[in-house]
């Protein structure tokens, strides 16, 4: 009990709770406004549930999509606890439970199927392929809007070791055990699910769904790389110790020193290397320019950092004077 209370008292818990809540509101909006009306079957658990419900309906068994989503999510949540880790599983329980209520909330706030006095949809238009309602009036536009919103939410969730539930759990398992990029993992798991739509949808709609699933994986990788982007900074300077102390004491980051030899001059120098966030890199450049430090600086983007990375920078800041 004390451990639970200590977790609830942390700033990290409440920040991640807010992120998860906002992420699921975006996910619910993507599903409600762009997936449900157009009946696009993208490689998601919701799409799989729609297919299974239709198949069961064809053999005389009536089971709702919501019930199937719940059953599948329970199975996947158990797998998340067993195969990934308890933190990921616990966070996903929360996100999986609030998805349905948030979809209902969007339905109450701004229903896509609301009609005017003439009996016409206010938000939706006819899908030219299936004839069913579509918010954007075109399946490709519905697809783009859905993928952008869902991918942004997925990347945000993955950055705090959580997920939007369902397919994300399968993707995380593929990512952990087969070592695929998280975007590729989403694509692999989603493509298998998407192919089940051949049972209920015309060929063209299935192809659109497959393309959407593939694009979803690419966009997840893009958003994930953007959120996790770091700068690998390499500096050669005679005042390397001054820069080292600034990085450690002011930016509160680690760095590595290498002895290098100039290919042209043959002189031995010290190269300093550090991994910094974009904001920290800007501060370092500002410090170098402000203090007129002679330095040869190069920087490259790093999209993934494994091992120790001090996100919270809890280390006490040194107030030693920089000379």
What does this 3D model show about the protein?
The protein contains eleven helices and six strands. The two termini are 50 Å apart. With 323 residues, the chain is α+β, with helices and mostly antiparallel strands. Helices cover 57% and strands 10% of the residues. Helix 7 (167-178) crosses helix 8. A hairpin with a 6-residue loop joins strand 1 (125-126) and strand 2. It folds into two domains: 2-227, no CATH class; 230-302, Alpha-Beta Plaits (2-Layer Sandwich), CATH 3.30.70.120.
Shape: elongated
Q: Whole-number radius of gyration?
A: 25 Å
Going by helix content, strand content and strand pairing, the class is alpha+beta
Distance between the termini: 50 Å
DSSP helix fraction: 55-70%
Instruction: Give the mean pLDDT.
Output: 77
Order of strands, main sheet, comes to 4-5-3-6
Entry keywords:
alpha+beta; two-stranded antiparallel ribbon; Alpha-Beta Plaits; 2 domains; disordered C terminus; 323 residues; 11 helices; 4-stranded antiparallel sheet
């Amino acid at each position: 009990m004390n451990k639970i209370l200590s977790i609830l008292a942390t700033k990290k818990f409440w920040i991640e709770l807010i992120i998860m809540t906002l992420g699921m509101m975006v996910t619910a909006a993507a599903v409600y406004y762009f997936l449900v009306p157009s009946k696009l079957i993208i490689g998601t658990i919701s799409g799989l549930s729609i297919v299974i419900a239709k198949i069961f309906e064809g053999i005389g068994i009536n089971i709702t999509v919501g019930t199937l989503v719940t059953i599948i999510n329970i199975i996947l949540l158990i797998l998340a606890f067993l195969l990934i880790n308890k933190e990921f599983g616990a966070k996903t329980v929360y996100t999986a439970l609030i998805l349905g209520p948030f979809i209902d909330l969007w339905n109450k706030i701004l229903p896509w199927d609301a009609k005017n006095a003439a009996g016409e949809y206010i938000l939706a238009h006819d899908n030219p392929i299936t004839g069913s309602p579509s918010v954007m009036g075109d399946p490709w536009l519905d697809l783009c809007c859905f993928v952008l919103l869902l991918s942004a939410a997925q990347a945000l969730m993955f950055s705090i070791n959580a997920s939007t539930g369902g397919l994300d759990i399968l993707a995380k398992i593929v990512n952990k055990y087969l070592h695929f990029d998280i975007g590729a993992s989403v694509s692999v798991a989603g493509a298998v699910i998407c192919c089940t739509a051949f049972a209920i949808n015309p060929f063209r709609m299935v192809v659109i769904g497959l393309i959407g699933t593939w694009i979803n994986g690419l966009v997840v990788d893009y958003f994930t790389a953007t959120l996790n982007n770091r700068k690998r900074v390499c500096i050669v300077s005679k005042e390397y110790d001054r820069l080292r102390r600034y990085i450690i004491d002011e930016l509160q980051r680690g760095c590595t020193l290498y002895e290098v030899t100039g290919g042209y001059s043959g002189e031995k120098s010290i190269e300093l290397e550090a991994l910094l966030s974009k904001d920290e890199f800007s501060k370092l450049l500002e410090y170098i320019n402000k203090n007129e430090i002679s330095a040869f600086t190069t920087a490259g983007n790093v999209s993934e950092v494994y091992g120790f990375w001090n996100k919270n920078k809890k280390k006490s800041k040194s107030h030693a004077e920089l000379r």
